[in-house]
Design goal:
Elements (H helix, E strand, L loop, with lengths): L5 E7 L10 H23 L4 H13 L20 E7 L4 E8 L5 H11 L4 E3 H10 L7 H4 L2 H16 L6 H4 L3 E6 L5 E7 L20 E3 L4 E7 L1 H7 L1 H12 L3 H15 L4 E7 L4 E2 L8 E6 L4 E4 L2
Helix pairs in contact: 1-2, 2-3, 3-4, 9-10
Amino acid sequence: MMGGFSLAVHGGAGVLHRDQMTPEREADYHAALERVLSAGEAVLDADGSALDAVTQAVCALENEPLFNAGRGAVFTRNEQQEMDAALMDGRNRQAGAVAGIFGPKNPVLAARSVLEHTDHVLMIGEGALAVARTAGLDFEEQDYFFTQERWDALQETLKMEAEGTLDDDPSRRHGTVGAVARDRNGHLAAATSTGGMTAKRSGRVGDSPVIGAGTYADDATCAVSATGDGEAFLRLCAAHEIDARMRLTSVSLERAAEDVIMTELTALNGTGGIIALDRNGAITTPFNCEGMYRGWSVEGDGRKTAIY
């Protein structure tokens, strides 16, 4: 199958509330999403692979401190940062993932090093870091990953817990980045990266690095990257559930994604969203919360970014 490329990216479903979003901050988010789309488009426009495109797009997202991944990762309740990432190649369903790591500048590259240099899919802790070092990836110290906004969010969350006033505000609970792409050869790929939840317990792993939960790609059906309540997405096997509905019942991507996010996720009292595209490059971005930082680009049809 040949044709034009398609690309979609997200910066998480944990958006600031409208009444907290200043025009300047909103402009910053749109500009960041534009930079991320440019990174992915550059690969696809040069006839690069979907896997390379989502890798570069997620690297760009991890480099943006506005988003909860890489440089903008949130803190655990132990005042540490533990990052997860995954990517999947729709050509052969090969995948690589890492969980609970700290050090690599771009966790998605650590996930890719697992895909390319091991026989495994998901690696954690020191084993994952050893693979990343052997692959020659860039590592950074704590100062690089520290952002005052994330530190303040941790202190506020711990204070609310102590006072018994903690709520389920998605802007604190959610935060993930991801990309899905279809290249000119018709191949699909997906990648997802996250710092997890503010004040999460040390060792907690969400859906992002779990293939079939937060990340999935198969050329025959779709590519999916999720963001939101990780535990709910894990219980749903949400990304694979969308694939399965398309494969087994022949429904469209839009219908499958809408049913999983708006019906199944909501039934579990979970909130969040996904970006996804099908084998023909059609894109859908459903979410059941206030907003999701997102952008998409279709060859010959321009690009767009959105928040709410």
